[in-house]
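## tool: complex_structure
## caller: assistant
## args:
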Amino acid sequence: MSEVLVDMRSITKRFPGITANYKVNFQVYRGEIHALLGENGAGKSTLMSILSGFYRPDNGEIRIRGKKVNLRSPREALKHGIGMVHQHFRLVEPFSVAENIILGTTGRLQFYLNRREFADRIARFAQSYGITIDPWAKVWQLSVGEKQRIEILKLLYRGADVLILDEPTAVLTPQNVRELFQTLRQMADNGRSIILITHKLQEVMEAADRITVLRKGRNVGTVFKKDVDERELTRMMVERDVLFCTTNPSHDIGPAVLRLEGISVVGDGGIPALKNLSLEVHAGEILGIAGIAGNGQRELAEAVTGLRPVAGGRVIVGGQDLTNQPASRFIEAGVSSVPEDRLGTGLVSNLDLYDNVILKDYRKPPIRRGPFLNHRVAREKASRLVSEFNIQVSDLSYPVRMLSGGNLQRLLLAREISLQPKLIVASYPVRGLDVGATEAVYRLLIELSNAGTAILLVSEDLDELLTLSDRIAVLFRGELMGVVPAREAEIEKLGLMMVGALTVEGRRA
Amino acid sequence: MSNSRFVNRFRLRVEKQIHTSPWISLLIPFTSIVLALLVGAVFLSLTGNNPWKVYGVMFKGAFGSVFGLSECVVNAIPLLMTGLAVALAFRMLLWNIGAEGQFYMGAFAASWVALSFPHAPMYLVMPGMLLAGFAGGAVWGLLPAVLRAFLGVNETLTTLMLNYVAILWVDSLVYGPWRDPQGYNFPLTAQFSSAATLPTLGNTRIHAGVFLALAAAVVIYIILKHTVWGYEIRVIGESQKAAKYAGINVVKNILLVMLLSGGLSGLAGYCEVAEITHRLQESISAGYGYTAIIVAWLGKLNPWAIMVVSFLFGGFLVGGYTMQSAGLPAATVSILQGAILFFVLAGEVLTRYRICVVERRNDR
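## result:
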């Protein structure tokens, strides 16, 4: 193939507590659309932020057109022809399209701008890329798709020939997506390179020439689209080191603890996130929720814990109708949860261990004594949990943000288990944990389910789900593709269900 | 030459500090005050004064005599109450910068009771004024709280703007309907009945409000440290997401905290009219509600520290008055206060981050 425009070699970037990129190699050819695929937290955005000059790598080197470069700022990256369109646009809303495009371009400081001449030039420039715009329109009047085109034009106008687009389709309608892909293809044919950050397989298959898959900050492989299919990519994205040491022995399944009756939930952007979803989780059962990130898992976990209202349907916990009740009612009804965001939602990072262990039961005696907190009881609880769950901590009065990821998760689980829940909702409970900590979490979950707790386990790791779950439910675009018993489930079938190509009855969608 | 080589070899990196040693958290406010005084000294010498002499006069005026000290306490009372009020709101990340307006509304409501019932006995009028003072401030705090809790309106702006409404409302009363006909046209009301005022300590101006302020500090401390409600406030202040996850009612707490915060400032206003001026008048507050913000930050939102800081700032005000009688504008004190806040906020960064010099890697 043609010339290598971008060559990132052995890039490593660490943030406090995590390694976002580890020895990543990444190459982009001239004239290709290259998809960067991976789950949330796989390190895609970090890698591209390094390429566009927002972050500096801890190790590794970047070559552009064969020359080693040191990118210290986005401006410098742009000088080398690299520009990034962020998910959140950086446009000045009250300004016109033309003004937004010239804003920040270096050149002679002019007191007087010939607006008419400039606007014409912008319109012609856009036209040469097959983009029609009105240079006089104010940005706030434009649709999201149009704003995105302005962002792209801005970069082209500044001479970028490597364009990085961060989840560009997240905000677009299907028609807009098609238009965007056409524009991108045209630009690639003109010899520019496009990097598409995404976790949506369908789009990758539709638009990309080559695909690089990142997982846990490492490059899992770079492949040509024509050589792979969605199933193969899914496997590359989600496969994990399989742990053989834990299995879920057969056990008794009790009555339904959680019943969802046709719930519909609206996501953050006002878009439907769950559509008419019905599910049951029984006492002593682990129900796994499989799906590629962003298909309604988070909204499901939030709806089941009372953190997100449902727009339709009913949520029934232990026979009690808790539809649209406050979160405190769910806690009282015995719903515990291990949220995706451990430090910040599940735990309060700046408070100490004593304050964190009582987060869920401070309202009840013996921790509450009239209007007061009984600090002694809280301390006892903290020390008990620390020793029972083997949490490594030097001082219980330190803020919990100083604990390691594994210990944080142990603390969080310890607290939730101490409430003797009927139902636990665990979202990605081992994400970012090492093998030892992962095992500890698995064991706790299995012990709990053997003791009769119903568990809703959200995960992207099919192996994990197959090991732990009794049944697996697959979500795709907020719809239930089916529920299969884990013993009979095949990874290929689940993969097809995850991309919406198969429903449980075996019909091709 | 060697300097530029040094610059090229090393660069500065800002890192998040994991441990904040108690040393640092004491050292930084202290250093801030010293640096602010140095900046003030430069300013004073530029305006043709001998800074050390001026500081000497200030210090002596405030702390050099029993009378000066008693005046420090008198000024510290409203600062302590408003400082606690804003600190309570700040703990929950509610940016109540409306203590000044809440102070005025408290003063207004208490005055209304005193002026409406001039013949009422003390055991009725005193508690009435106290309650009215609290309620006046509380309502003024609740207004922005309701907007914030239900509509998400930024309370920083609304509390600030309501200050002007409250100040102008009091002005319109003392220039208009409430003006004392025997007051030679000064913008003040008639004096309250003696039942509406409290005796002072000896022949100083220290009044019973000092007990109210100290009690407020103790109560706020107990609330934050030992009650279920205070626990909720601390959790919300650290992370709203965690608070919601724990089933804490954030809306209710916004309303309650602003009610108490406004009420406390209102009580400070009550103390001022009932026990210092004995009437409502223009400029009833010497900017206490604004200085309270500095006091609260310098005291790191800790009630005990706020107690110490308000005494120091009371001293600042008294020192300012002595400077004024020595012919310097009292605004000089405001400049010093502003400089202190500036350095404290800048210093805050140093308690949370550490700046280190690292060697440049050969990455070019």
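## assistant note: The first strand of chain A starts at residue 4 and ends at 15. The two ends of chain A are 37 Å apart (CA to CA). Handing back to user.
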